[in-house]
Amino acid sequence: MSEMFKIKLPDGSVREMPEGSTPADVAAAIGPGLAKAALAARIDGEVRDLNRPFEGDANLALITSRDEKDALELVRHDFAHILAEAVQKLFPGTQITFGPATDDGFYYDFAPAPDRGPFTEEDLPAIEQEMRRIIAADEPLIREVWQREDVRALFEKQGEAFKAEWVMELPEGEPITMYRSGQGEGAWIDLCRGPHLASTGKLDPQAFKLTHVSGAYWRGDQNNPMLSRIYGTAWLNKKQLADHLVRLEEAAKRDHRKIGREMDLFHLQAEAHGSVFWHPNGFIIWRQLEAYLRRRLDAAGYVEVKTPQLMDARQWEKSGHWGKYRENMFVVPDEIPNPEEEGPVITGTGDWMALKPMNCPAHVLIFKQGITSYKELPIRLAEYGCCHRNEPHGALHGIMRVRQFTQDDGHIFCREDQIVEEVQAFGDLLDSVYKDLGFDSYAIKLALRPDKRFGADAMWDQAEGELRDAVVASGRATPEYGWEELPGEGAFYAPKLEYHLTDAIGRTWQVGTMQSDRVLPERLDAAYIGEDGEKHRPIMLHRAIIGTFERFIGILIEHYAGKFPLWLAPVQAVVATIVSDADGYAQEVLDKLQAAGLRAEADLRNEKINYKVREHSLAKVPLLLVVGKREAEEGTVAVRRLGSDEHQRVLSLNEAVATFAAEAVPPDLR
Ligand SMILES: [Zn+2]
Ligand SMILES: [Zn+2]
Question: Is 267 a catalytic residue?
Answer without folding.
Answer: no
